[in-house]
Design goal:
The protein is α/β, with parallel strands linked by helices. About 15% of the residues lie in helices and about 35% in strands. It folds into two domains: about 1-55, 2,3-Dihydroxybiphenyl 1,2-Dioxygenase, domain 1 (Roll); about 60-124, 2,3-Dihydroxybiphenyl 1,2-Dioxygenase, domain 1, CATH 3.10.180.10. InterPro entries: Glyas_Bleomycin-R_OHBP_Dase, Glyas_Fos-R_dOase_dom, VOC_core.
């Protein structure tokens, strides 16, 4: 039924101006629209709606991620822009916080300004 329909991604935010700055200036996404209710970005071919909420309890799992061709280069650019990557106790991550899956994919996680966990993945 929805196989050919475009997906829309949603991320909650308690402060849209702060989120707009992060998603546009730091991550480089194109801001398409901002209303009192959401910032709408273009992320590749996907619409991303960063939606205003009054309260937010960040979840302990990834809510949004990007597949990138060169994770290390993207990570270095993001660190230079002030992004801090998560380190998880008991997970074998390297000095940059990158975890390699048993299949050889590389994954790194980082928070947005509201504490939502985002990720980068370089598929093997």
């Amino acid at each position: 039924m929805l196989a050919d329909a475009a997906a829309i991604a949603f991320v909650p935010s308690t402060h849209l101006d702060r989120s707009r700055a992060f998603y546009s200036a730091v991550l480089g996404l194109e801001l398409r629209e901002q209303t009192p209710f959401a910032c709408v970005f273009r992320a590749g071919g996907t619409m991303l709606r960063v939606t205003r909420v009054d309260e937010l309890r960040p979840q302990p799992f990834t809510v949004l991620g990007w597949a990138v061709p060169d994770l290390r280069a993207t990570l270095a650019d993001m660190v230079a822009a002030g992004v801090t990557f998560h380190r998880y106790e008991g997970m074998p991550q390297d000095e940059d916080g990158v975890w390699q899956t048993p299949g050889g994919d590389l994954v790194a996680w980082y928070p947005d300004p509201d504490g939502n966990t985002l990720s980068l993945t370089q598929f093997a």
